């Protein structure tokens, strides 16, 4: 090797060594900072954590507990009411037009249309049977009635009101 090749090799080795030391120093600095600075927690992650570790139930004791229990019951009722179909209306016409009419206006799946002839045998079984079949569902030789018309968000009262409306509007 020539002299200038050796000189280049020495300088190049020193630069590589210096870069390796600098890299190692930066890695150690990053590791140190990582252990010293706490990680930022996003508000949504903190909220999810709080919800996950929150107590499952609550203890209601005394007058304060009774008030808290009443407030919790009211909140639960409001939440349940917000999930009731059609805003909780018991107007059979509204429910029929939005749900039941899809089958009972056209006879889809052998659903009885709003005519006296289609309902005579069913009416003979009594209203309670009609209510039960509408609420729980029914599979018969003539066709299938899904529970609550296929909308489980309906209350029993809404289904009964709709059955009553249908019976009152037979032609």
Question: Which helices and strands, and how do they pair?
Answer:
Blueprint: H1 3-36, H2 43-53, H3 62-82, H4 92-104, H5 116-124, H6 127-136, E1 138-139, E2 144-145, H7 156-168
Antiparallel strand pairs: 1-2
Short description:
This protein is mostly helical and 171 residues long.
Question: How would you describe what is shown here?
Answer:
The protein folds into 2 domains: 1-39; 86-168, Orthogonal Bundle (Cytochrome Bc1 Complex, Chain D, domain 2), CATH 1.10.760.10. The chain has a two-stranded antiparallel sheet with strand order 1-2. The protein is mostly helical and 171 residues long. A hairpin with a 4-residue loop joins β1 and β2 (144-145). The radius of gyration is 36 Å and the shape is elongated. α4 (92-104) crosses α7 (156-168) and α6 (127-136) packs across α7 (156-168). Helices cover 65% and strands 2% of the residues. It has 7 helices and 2 strands. The model has no long low-confidence stretch (mean pLDDT 84). The chain crosses the membrane at residues 12-33. Pfam families: Cytochrome_CBB3. GO terms for molecular function: electron transfer activity; heme binding; iron ion binding.
Mean pLDDT: 84
Percent helix, as a range, is: 55-70%
Broad shape: elongated
CATH homologous superfamily name of the largest domain? Cytochrome c-like domain
The strand order across the widest sheet is 1-2
- Could you tell me the radius of gyration in angstroms? 36 Å
User: How many separate domains make up the residues?
Assistant: 2
**Main beta sheet:** 2 strands, antiparallel
- Strand tally is 2
| Ends apart, CA distance between termini | 112 Å
Low-pLDDT stretches are none
Question: Helix and strand succession?
Answer: HHHHHHEEH
Q: What's the total helix number?
A: 7
Structural class, please?
A: mainly alpha
Query: What is the second-level CATH architecture of the largest domain?
Result: Orthogonal Bundle
CATH class value of the largest domain:
Mainly Alpha
- Reported by name, the CATH topology of the largest domain is Cytochrome Bc1 Complex, Chain D, domain 2
Query: How much strand?
Result: under 5%
């Amino acid at each position: 090797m020539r002299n200038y090749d050796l000189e280049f090799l020495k300088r190049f080795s020193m630069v590589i060594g210096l870069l390796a030391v600098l890299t190692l120093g930066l890695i150690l600095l990053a590791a140190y900072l990582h252990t010293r600075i706490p990680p930022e927690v996003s508000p949504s992650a903190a909220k999810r954590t709080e919800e996950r570790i929150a107590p499952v139930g609550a203890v209601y004791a005394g007058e304060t507990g009774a008030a808290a229990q009443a407030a919790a019951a009211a909140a639960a009722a409001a939440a349940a009411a917000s999930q009731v179909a059609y805003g909780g209306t018991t107007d059979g016409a509204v429910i029929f037009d939005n749900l039941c009419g899809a089958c009972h206006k056209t006879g889809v799946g052998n659903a009885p249309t709003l005519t006296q002839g289609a309902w005579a045998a069913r009416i003979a079984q009594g209203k309670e049977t009609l209510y039960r079949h509408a609420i729980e569902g029914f599979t018969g030789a003539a066709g299938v009635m899904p529970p609550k018309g296929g909308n489980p968000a309906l209350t029993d009262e809404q289904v009964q009101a709709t059955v009553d409306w249908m019976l009152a509007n037979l032609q």
